[in-house]
Amino acid sequence: MKIYQYPSKSAEKQVKNTIERGLGFSKQDYKIVETYLDDVKTRGDKALVEYTNKFDSQKVTIDSIKVTPDEFDMALKNVDNSFLKALDRSVNQLEYFHAKQKENSWIDTPRSGVMVGQLVKPVSAAGIYAPGAKGGKTPLVSSVLMGGIPAKAAGVKSINLMTPPMENGEINPHILAAARKIGISSVFKAGSSWAIGALAYGTETVPKVDVIVGPGNIYVTLAKKIVAGTVGIDMIAGPSEILIIADKDARPEFLAADLLSQAEHDAMASSVLVTDSGDIAKKTLAALEKQIEKLPRKEIARQSIDRFGAIMLVPDIETGIELSNRLAPEHLELIVKEPFDYIDRIQNAGALFLGAYTPEPMGDYIAGPNHVLPTAGTARFSSALSVEHFTKKTSLIHYSEAAFKKEADDVIRLAGTEGLEAHANCVKIRQDAIY
Predict the structure, then answer these.
(1) pLDDT tens, 287-344?
(2) Half-sphere exposure of residue 314: CA atoms within 13 angstroms, side-chain side
């Protein structure tokens, strides 16, 4: 990781490098994923089990691909109380936050004789994807919660979880405990793009869903991209990223730890510190070099830091905010003396973490907001996964005869301008009937 003076040509080159990195899909990737999707669409359970046997576990069969009630019960016996305590806190706080997002249907009468409104309804079925993570040895429990809780808050009746099995054909008990806790309907033992295909198209065992959400590798992400339109999806997510804006009062060891929290995800992750203090820049770099050597995933973190890590030394915090808005980071930490003073100047960020004791992992697991966030600059126009992803809205319109008469000529004029005479005739024929 290098320290750059910003603005400068060298800093601009690094900024461009960060902006242009992302999740690329080759023609070969498309071909492979389309093959998996088409096969599951055609052969259903048989294809799903064949791919699961080939890549994850040879012990999964058509009869065992769906988790049974006994497996759920056994999972709860195989997790410790400290996990269940942490799970309870996380679930309670996530449920509280997502309940606040729920929208209600509404009706209004803005003009005499006219009623307009909006029906807000949940989709019928949702699919949640949770990655396997080292063959199930490091279960991504938070993915289960972040996908399932907003779906539940929206009122979705059927919530189905897809996650790869461990080699023994079972699902990590921590995943099942989380699924049971939040009321997920069914869990299926399958991963990667064939799991996405099963949710999108349905099989003999796996019900077809309306929306698919959740993180995954390049094949999961590409599968979601391909089936989007057949079903709704949350977003096309790229590599993780963090940007920290810090002043002279920040603690370098905190900053270094926070930068590495994202660098350990994968080699494409981006970790950027923006500061107006040269002393903080140098001390953070030193702390980072010390901390990285202690990480189990230090090789991955090193690749990320070397390629997409940077410390940008800016003339003032305002310039740092301008740079941040340009990068539109997934995670933005404001570790400055008065972080709340800057909230209204933040235009683009997936999530905003305020103050020295609000590191990004608090949002990953327990704070309440969703951690499925826009990446690769898409925070310029998109938002975190929310209850809204699991709802659809239907407009309501009603006109009385008197209200229709008052506005009919304007509709005829506008339709005629567009050359849509049949549209105009819908109105004219009613005018004739009235007069």
Answers:
(1) 999 999 999 999 999 999 999 999 999 999 999 999 999 999 999 999 999 999 999 9
(2) 20
Max Cα-Cα span within the chain: 86
Pairwise CA distance, residues 280 & 263, whole Å: 20
Which tens digit of pLDDT belongs to each residue from 349-391? 999 999 999 999 999 999 999 999 999 999 999 999 999 999 9
Distance CA 418, CA 305 (A): 55
Q: Token digits for 274?
A: 């923006």
Cα separation, 186 vs 191, whole angstroms: 15
Architecture of domain 2-23+238-368: 3-Layer(aba) Sandwich (3.40)
3-state secondary structure of 380: helix
Among residues 320, 322, 380, which one has the least CA distance to residue 350? 380
Nearest Cα residue to 192 out of 159, 164, 213, 228 = 164
Pull the structure tokens for residue 366: 């327990």
* Residue 6 vs residues 10, 313, 401: alpha-carbon distances, Å: 8, 6, 65
- Amino acid letter, residue 228: A
d(CA 373, CA 365): 13
**Residues 245, 334: contact at Cβ < 8 Å?**
yes
- How many Cα atoms occupy the beta-carbon half-sphere of 296 within 13 Å? 1
Torsion of CA 279, 282, 286, 287, to 10 degrees: 50
Catalytic residues: 330-331
Q: Which helix (H) or strand (E) holds 275?
A: strand 270-275
Q: Do domains 2-23+238-368 and 27-105+125-233 have the same CATH topology?
A: yes
Instruction: Determine the Cα–Cα distance for residues 223 and 217; give it in Å rounded to an integer.
Output: 10
The three-class DSSP label of residue 180 is helix
Domain 27-105+125-233 annotated CATH 3.40.50.1980:
yes
Per the CB < 8 A criterion, the answer to whether 312 and 323 are in contact is yes
Torsion of Cα atoms, 95 then 99 then 101 then 107, to 10°:
160
CA–CA separation, 38 vs 56, rounded Å? 20
pTM over 0.90? The answer is yes
For tokens 């079925």, the residue is 125
d(CA 100, CA 163): 28
